[in-house]
């Protein structure tokens, strides 16, 4: 590792000397050098520690960020600890899109859409419930520890900031093959949660608080629904356009580089176009990712498929590491800690309040909504969400990460700087909460999940619906004849079949919608936009 | 294509209205949207026109850029035609590195090193000769058309600006399989030329012209050699470090995403580190690319190999298209044309002078150096560079492209703006020359090469040294026993062998050095840094 350190020392020394006379603005060159070098270090360290039971990549990146921040702080003789001002624009324009697009691109669509209603209830209603609890709790408890003087909008913003979760750490521990449904719920909730909290945060920022309370709440919800629908449609449209372009234009001759470039550029375009039209880029790019992996991905060469799958994952990985690293380096920024004038006791009080509200706010929706989901699908053949799985879902969303930091900076600073002591306190509290949840909760995740899912093999059977369940399971026997009948007789023929379908729809709405969607997909969408039409029906579960 | 246009119109309308209230700075969002959308358009258009005899991708991108510039100009009612100020920092920090790294990564190393001396003489001495001719010519002829008032450094900078070539267009036409040596010469010269002209340009910029003339020239050459050597060494070191890290750390278990991320980040780090240390990032990243593809690439998974190969090519492709697009859009910037106060006649004179000097400056080194190269390797079994091939090499380097524009902006503007009429004239002349060479010369390239290499199959036999030449060719029979003998007897044993080697070295220096390098590579480098050791010797030609 000697050469790493040599390179680091050279660069950090240059950064500390505020020097370098390279081409262009030397400050930028130094920052990029340090970040690139430290990112490489994180990659290698993360890989070496992969088998470790306690440490995960998030923790590694945060700690390395801290150490680098400390080194810069010492080398610059206490003047500054960071070499790059936090820029939410950088975060929202360059770093977030690849993470969210990759989430959409890699999501196991079958599981995602099977659990669609549950995921959406967690990801949307859950955030609303959590925001309400955190906001009200802060409003009620902050004055009791001697910290107040915030607007109503600020309290709502706090709710949104501390309701955005970071599930990456938990996902590294849960096995997608062994507990596919649990994985899908945690993963799906994480993505929808990201989108919801950002959209809700923007809706809150634009609030005119002087209006009537009830109407304000209604307006937020309507705004949210409008944003959700239009953003999704835009993403789907751009995804379908890309799929069609790839299918129509590239028939017969293929160029991997062009295909990859087109997919990446169109994905990015979907995000930027949504931002331009005041929609939610995060939702747009997520659905664009889903549609692209469902249709466009099938229209390209084998090399393009491998390349896109890995390159989007790599970009997302680099972006996530970058954020955690940045948060780590930023934590030692002295100015913020100086600007915040709260006593240690008050800080501790604020920290305690936020952590308690986070724990409570999440419990307040995970358990009720799980029970409701179990009740709704009681007649379905799918196994319910067990209590242990509920605990895992609850735990998975306790970590706070990059989105929280970005939202906090967005609301309470101007270009990463704040002179208001109250706002500085909120920023430092956010950093402490992110650190604490990522390090302590992250540390405990692996042992906790080992305790909750002790016999993975057994839990697979409980959760049901794996990829490997063959056609010998009873539900497949139930579905297969139904589909064959319908396919044999064509659409819209046979009274018996229609009656059966209606009773199915009433009994198991999501499942039935899913079946119709698949038929529609096979008949109209895939022939136009691409994808294998004659896929194996028996794999459907 | 309707949806393309719809998206375009929406975005361009927003850009023209200078509007959009999206998150962050709306101007940035608009610019990114327009560029991403137009890049997508270029991709599709380039693909559709691929089979066309006259148009190539450079021409397409330039023309589309022009059209978009015109649309923005009209929609903004003549106020401005560009939505992004030219920023050499953007070019040198973000756009150039992937292009050069990819060049190093994709270069056919065998051919490249076989023709090493010829390529270097074209790429280094050629540029020196061309700079001398263009600078002297401009100094002598510019006053004759009523345009003067430039410093000596400016004339030298003009020489460097108009000595940097853009061979992409020609490379699209020459077949790597049919004329491998010609392809390698053109490709290799293009890369070394990029590096040389940038390095030389920087050396010229830092010149203190008040010193004695002779010493100045010596200093430029010494500076150049120092930069060349240190930059190359840095690139090789970082490439080897990456190879070693990948080999040592990833033994047994692999993670494609981490491997790809590490390679990409280390490559970028090499460029930035070189810039930080005042070296030539372009040379560093080029040699880093060569070393990575020679060693590191063999230490990663099959998926990583496919992904890296394509992703670097894709990035390079996007970066090149971006530049041409930008040049096209920038061409209609009214301010520059207004600031330049020269008459039409003077402009035409300047244009004529530069084009003539470009044609002459290139002829002045391609033909003599080719003849010299043929003379040097007369005793080798390799076929000489035929006159027709010399013409193709000459023609391939006539196009001027992105590097010329970037250097011109760097020297003659401040952040893309100039108020000096003389400097504005140079910028507009550069744009005209780039346009003319790319459009007119580019247009003629395919017909010219068809005329020069009429029977591709036959020319393969003349050029010799293809990939498919089996062990039945006489030269392989000549080399194989030599290698077997040496390998059987071990190193340093046998007087006969040493004598033979020395006579070989005197007779065919490059070839013999290459053989020793391969032995060293197989014995020491590959076991440490990775790569197949037991490669097929018979494939060596």
Automatic annotation (TrEMBL), chains A, B:
Coiled coil: none annotated. Residues 37-449 form the Cation/H+ exchanger transmembrane domain. Pfam families: Na_H_Exchanger. Residues 1-19 form the signal peptide. One of its GO terms (molecular function) is sodium:proton antiporter activity. One of its GO terms (biological process) is sodium ion import across plasma membrane. Keywords: Ion transport, Membrane, Potassium, Potassium transport, Signal, Sodium, Sodium transport, Transmembrane, Transmembrane helix, Transport. InterPro entries: Cation/H_exchanger_CPA1, Cation/H_exchanger_TM, NaH_exchanger. It catalyses: K(+)(in) + H(+)(out) = K(+)(out) + H(+)(in); Na(+)(in) + H(+)(out) = Na(+)(out) + H(+)(in). GO terms for cellular component: plasma membrane. It comes from the Eukaryota. The chain crosses the membrane at residues 29-49, 61-78, 90-107, 119-142, 224-246, 280-298, 310-329, 349-371, 392-412, 424-444. It is a multi-pass membrane protein. It is found in: Membrane. This is Cation/H+ exchanger transmembrane domain-containing protein. It comes from Oryza meyeriana var. granulata.
